[in-house]
Amino acid sequence: MFIIFGTRGLKHTVSESPVLSNSCPNCNNGNLVNKLYRRWFTLFFIPMIPLDVVDRFYQCDSCKSAYNENIKTILQRSQDEINENQKRAKLVFAKALIASMTHMSIIDGDFAAEEEREIMDAIEGLPEMKEELMAIHQNVKVTGNQDNQVFNFLNEARNELSSEALINILAQAAVVLLADGAIEKEEENLMKEYLIACGLPKGMYQTLIDKLMQKDMTKIKKEQLN
Fold first, then answer.
1. Which Pfam families does the annotation name (predicted)?
2. Which of 14, 16, 21, 153 lies at a CB distance of 3.0 to 4.6 Å from 34, suitable for a disulfide?
């Protein structure tokens, strides 16, 4: 009787290791599953005794691409960087928003209660930054655009944010402009300066105002119907 024995490599899923969902760099939507390649002692070609682990790696369950285990660290670091960039962009947006809204509210020399309410509502909508935004609001309220601080916030936003985000900032600044029911010449000129500072055409001023006024009229009509 011949006894046939030897060794054989088998691939196993590491059940205690979490799957990295939708993380495959090759196909972009495959899940990365942690695998190990282990040698087994075989008897009559049947695996009997597990031996040493030859390799551990991640394999995509879709395209079958395989990656060294350090792919998990790389992917995690990339996600951390994305989260940090998003956090920074949100702060840049918020600082430019509150600075421009406050500056707009004082430019005509009359800081109306309606304008203050709009600014406070914007700050309350960003509770994780409230302390820093309140400090910016109070500083601009007292000193205005001293040392070009408001335009510095806008320039930072221009360098780091999309055009859509910049338009959003200016649209909310325009809400302050309209809050007291009248548009002073100083407010109009300042809004046009903001547009230029953000790299946007100053002719967009009238478009912003028209859309906001149209939005206000729609809101009033709805309230009347209710």
1. TerB, Zn_ribbon_15
2. 14
CA 71-75-81 angle, 5° bins: 145
Distance of alpha carbon 101 from alpha carbon 70, whole angstroms: 47
Question: Rounded CA gap, 97 and 122, in Å?
Answer: 8
Helix (H, G, I), strand (E, B) or coil at 110: coil
d(CA 175, CA 121): 12
Could you tell me the two tokens for 159? Answer: 């360098």
Are 35 and 82 within one domain?
no
Predicted TM-score (pTM) of the model is 0.65
Look at residue 178 and give its three-state secondary structure: helix
Quote the DSSP letter at residue 20: B
pLDDT digits (tens, 9 = 90+) for 127-164: 999 999 999 999 999 999 999 999 999 999 998 888 88
Q: How far is CA 78 from CA 73, 116, 162, in A?
A: 9, 40, 21
Distance CA 53, CA 43 (A): 19
Residues 112 and 48 in one domain: no
Domain that includes residue 114, residue range: 76-212
